[in-house]
Amino acid sequence: MTQFNDLDARLLVDLLRDRIKPQKSLGQHFLVDEKIILRSIEIATEFKKPISPQSHILEIGPGPGSLTLELLRSNARLTALEIDNETVSHLKRVFPNVEDRLVLNNQDALIGNWPSDITHLISNLPYQISSPVLEKIQNHHLINPISIIILLVQDEFAERMAMKRYDTRGPLGMSLWLDFDVYLDRKVPSNCFSPAPRVNSRLVTLLPKEREKLSIINRKLFRIIVKHCFLNRRRKIRTSLSKSPKRLNRVKGWHKEKWNNAILNVFSKVVDNLPEDWPNLRPEDLEPEHWVILTNTISSN
Known about the structure:
Rossmann fold; Helicase, Ruva Protein, domain 3; seven-stranded mixed beta sheet
């Protein structure tokens, strides 16, 4: 079985750039650093989710095929979603005769369904679709669990995913916390790409995590409440909650009047397992577990 010994990341990038001019609108900054590419695969093994011939990997935005090459060398099955027509043609030229292991779809990753049997999702995500891709990952994972997700994203975005510091806490990380533990890995300088982006990147791992307190939570209401409060993160939580969130009516059964009554009830009583003076704290002062308790308390009124 061919292992594409005549190919490497730099050659694949050069072959594609001979045919296209990278488009900023598609986030076409192509990774050429072999060590970072190999690190993406090493991470799966370190988390005891090694890639094997029984694995089915989803790759979003393969571009020139730098990561695709190493994933194929692992002998796993691979589904790759690529939106750019010329890039799809390039990938078919450089990876011929592997139809048994590579399904290449000319598809917007945000539209349509993903395979139901994905075990690994490993991708260098275009920066501008990182947030909606994460939302789709969570929605897919709820129905078809994925064992591990390894992504290369913008460094600042990775920090907000992991929430290791108070100033990085926000709706993105709180939403991911519902389903995953997030681990930061190597920083990736801009010179590891061709063409080089203006910002650095970072490898980040999402490992599924079941949380006992989430059995009854209204996820849509949770996200709306968190986003509503973090829109003005310097305001006290009391001030933010005193006004109903935008798009509240997108949550079944909720409207402004119901919200106002629920908040009055919540403010009038002690909420177990929340900090004593929680209404006068800022959003970043609450842990993810606190937002779950607060959401469930509001929902029950």
